[in-house]
Amino acid sequence: MELKKSKRADLERLRPIFLKLGLIIVLAITLIAFEWTSKPRYDNTFANLADLELEEEIIPITRQEKYVPPPPPPLKVTEVLNIVEDDVEIEDELIIDDVEADQNMQIEIVEFEEEEEVAEEEVFFIVEDMPSFQGKGHEAFREYIARNLRYPEIAAENGISGRVYVQFAINSKGQLVDCIVVRGIDPALDKEAVRVVMSSPNWVPGKQRGKAVKVQFTFPINFVLQ
Known about the structure:
This protein is of the alpha+beta class. It has a domain at 123-223: TolA/TonB C-terminal domain. Helix content is 25%, strand content 15%. The chain has five helices and five strands. Strands 1, 2, 3, 4 and 5 form a five-stranded mixed sheet that branches. The protein is elongated. The chain starts with 14 loop residues before the first helix and ends with a strand.
């Protein structure tokens, strides 16, 4: 006789269901484990610090003291007393003359004359009546230069010759003034040119509109070795 199992007693038929339930339970536990977070425990130190009174550190302000040197010691003043004897006679006596004026006193009044300001003359180069040397013109002055010219020995020894241009003026009084060398060739020759020109006697002054005026010239002086 064949034994037959009852469907209620057959557990094989429920095996898939239990398997699925087990997998679901395991997955649920796993998910809960991953999702489970634990909060770390922190000591509430900030709350404790709030209760404490913060003491502010006060930094003192320091200043560098100025060095004041000590005062110098007081100078000792020694008084020197010159003892003069009472019986010494003073020979020097101050004699005051009587300065009261009387009718016989004569008073001399000295007047101070103010110095006249010398106005600088206007310089002309060409005027109506040109200055002339001794009434003979420039040729007479050229002859005067030739007669009075002295050739410097140092220039003659070195063979120096040439032409020196001298500038001068004849003022309204006929005097030769403001003599300078405008083009020179040698210090010795330049010096001699100025010397001989300044040794000139007075000229007849030039005139402009009938009035004597100051006229300026540029005059060449030749130095030729013989």
